[in-house]
Design brief:
This protein is of the alpha/beta class. It has helices at 4-15, 21-28, 32-40, 64-74, 85-96, 104-115, 176-190, 219-228, 244-257, 267-281, 293-302, 385-393, 402-406, 409-415, 420-436, 439-452, 457-468, 493-502, and strands at residues 135-146, 149-160, 165-171, 196-199, 206-209, 215-217, 231-234, 263-264, 316-321, 327-330, 335-338, 347-352, 356-360, 366-371, 379-381. Among the domains are: 1-45; 55-122; 135-302, Ribonuclease H-like superfamily/Ribonuclease H (Nucleotidyltransferase, domain 5, 2-Layer Sandwich); 316-383, SH3 type barrels. 40% of the residues lie in helices and 16% in strands. The strands form 4 sheets. Strands 1, 2, 3, 4, 7 and 8 form a 6-stranded mixed beta sheet that branches. Helix 5 (85-96) crosses helix 6 (104-115) and helix 16 crosses helix 17. The longest helix is centred in the last third of the chain and has 17 residues, at 420-436.
Length: 508
């Protein structure tokens, strides 16, 4: 039953604003019969209250354990990334398929009972008309797992208010490189650039907001704008709702594409899959216009600017000085990255992308590459291969370098009783195993070798193969039918005995 405020709004839309029943039903989401019922109602005396029976939803009994488990898991996730009734209904359909015979209304009722304490009232905003091709951009917060590790990340949203089509890209942080990389990827996917894009006043773009509303933009953002030739528009400070379409799209993308919390091996591959999901999502009907989103998007696409002929480098380049161990710090000293002993106490050029930190030499050749670290706590990324190669060449100085103290305990213990020559060989072997798989797997191999008391290189290599390499299982070779099968040979030992007798030896 609708509240009196909702009923009054319906009657106002009909009797004062002149809207018909179909328009009211589309804008409010109520059924046409419900709208007509309250328009035709004459008796407004208050109905007598009835004793409400407890709603138990018995048809959902076989599925309640799943629903309860999903909602319980939501307690450990972000509030905006929790299941909606619609998402739970979709997951039940996916899991049970034709065996699931409950309606969405039943599921929604049960979910409302289970989580009504976290439901709030929706705020309404006046609809705005937008021209085709105009876009809005915003970031949202979302958790995800990459290679089993949990990240509290971000996701970039670009939406077209005219058609309500949107795109999403996931990142581990929100910085200039992520903004540029996300927009560039979306531009290339759709084959064009929106002529006008709305943003908030993030520091990645805006350095200062003047009293007259003008803004001082960062040089890098200005270069990005000029390269793609779009016009940037900015909301008033503290008025993010002015780009309400993308604000809604942030929530829609989270509920429909990031619930349950995503798990993947490669963030780049996952982002490609998200773009395909966005294309599939556009096949649904527009919430207000009587056409599909994809049909309306044709007008958006027709208004796009052409892509530039030259690709834009979304990286940032900085010069940093390394310490005595050949390491450097960025992000206010929170994140530490290794280079190589050769580059200790010197300046190196660092290329920062949304996903990687790449160290370059004076000829712009790559020295080492790291996955980029994100977060407001101290972290370090260590690429051991350059250090192992250096130590292998000078094993005699091993204990007198700070690098030795940085080695994991199993490696130091393994090297403890070896000769100078053997230390060099073992370090070279560990370097080869690191290059073959990873330093972590090489250290695991060393730990296993210690438990077996195996101190030779061959044992290390064999152990690593057994622990970390997949053994190729080959099918038995089957000979063609035209090749004759060999008969099994049965040896005749009597002939052998006769030969021995001739030699003067008795057979046994």
């Amino acid at each position: 039953m609708l509240s009196m405020t909702q009923i009054k709004d319906i009657r106002k839309m009909y009797f004062e604003e002149g809207k018909n029943i179909n328009q009211i039903a589309r804008e409010t989401g109520y059924d046409r019969k419900t709208v007509k019922k309250y328009l035709d109602k004459d008796d407004w005396n208050k109905d007598q209250s009835k004793v409400r029976e407890k709603t138990t939803f018995p048809k959902l009994d076989p599925y309640k354990p799943d629903i309860d488990a999903w909602l319980s898991e939501d307690k450990r996730t972000r509030r905006k990334q929790r299941h909606t009734a619609k998402r739970i209904y979709e997951r039940l359909l996916e899991k049970y398929k034709d065996d699931f015979g409950c309606s969405y209304r039943t599921v929604a009722g049960y979910v409302a009972v289970k989580k009504k304490e976290i439901f709030g009232k929706n705020k309404g905003f006046l609809p705005l008309e937008h021209i085709p091709g105009e876009a809005q951009v915003d970031f949202g917060d979302a958790d995800f797992y990459e290679k089993g590790k949990l990240y509290s990340g971000k996701y970039l949203n670009l939406s077209f208010p005219y058609s309500n089509k949107g795109y999403i890209q996931v990142f581990k942080g929100e910085n200039q490189e992520c903004l540029f990389e996300g927009l560039k990827t979306i531009f290339e996917h759709i084959g064009g650039v929106p002529p006008r894009i709305w943003f908030d006043n993030a520091s990645t773009m805006v350095t200062k907001v003047m009293k007259n509303g003008e803004r001082t933009l960062t040089d890098d953002f200005l270069r990005f704008m000029e390269h793609y030739r779009f016009e940037a528009a900015f909301c008033n400070v503290g008025a993010g709702h002015e780009k309400g379409n993308v604000e809604n799209k942030v929530g829609y993308h989270r509920r429909n594409m990031l619930v349950p919390v995503p798990r993947f091996e490669s963030i780049s591959k996952f982002n490609k899959e998200l773009l395909l999901q966005c294309e599939e999502d556009a096949k649904r009907e527009h919430y207000r216009k009587e056409r599909t989103i994809e049909e309306l998007y044709k007008d958006d696409a027709a208004s796009l600017l052409e892509l530039p002929r030259v690709a834009f480098d979304t990286s940032k380049y900085i010069n940093v000085k390394t310490n005595g161990y050949g390491k450097f710090l960025i992000n206010n000293g929170l994140h530490e990255y290794s280079v190589a002993p050769k580059y200790a106490n010197t300046y190196v050029l660092v290329r920062l992308t949304a996903f990687e930190v790449i160290v370059l030499d004076e000829n712009y050749r790559e020295i080492v590459r790291h996955d980029r670290l994100y977060g407001d706590h101290k972290q370090q990324s260590m690429q051991w291969l350059p250090y192992l190669n250096q130590l292998a060449r000078c094993p005699g100085a091993l204990k007198y370098t700070g690098i030795y103290q940085m080695l994991p305990q199993p490696v130091k213990e393994y090297l403890e009783d070896l000769s100078k020559q053997d230390k060099g060989k073992v370090l070279k072997a560990i370097a080869n195993l690191t290059q073959k798989s990873s330093f972590e797997k090489a250290v695991e191999t060393v730990s296993t070798a210690l438990s077996y008391g195996a101190a030779d290189i061959d044992s290390l290599i064999n152990l690593h193969s057994r622990l970390h390499e997949k053994v190729l299982q080959l099918e038995p070779v089957r000979l063609p039918d035209h090749i004759p099968q060999l008969k099994r040979y049965e040896p005749n030992f009597m002939v052998y005995d006769e030969s021995l007798k001739k030699a003067g030896v008795d057979g046994c």
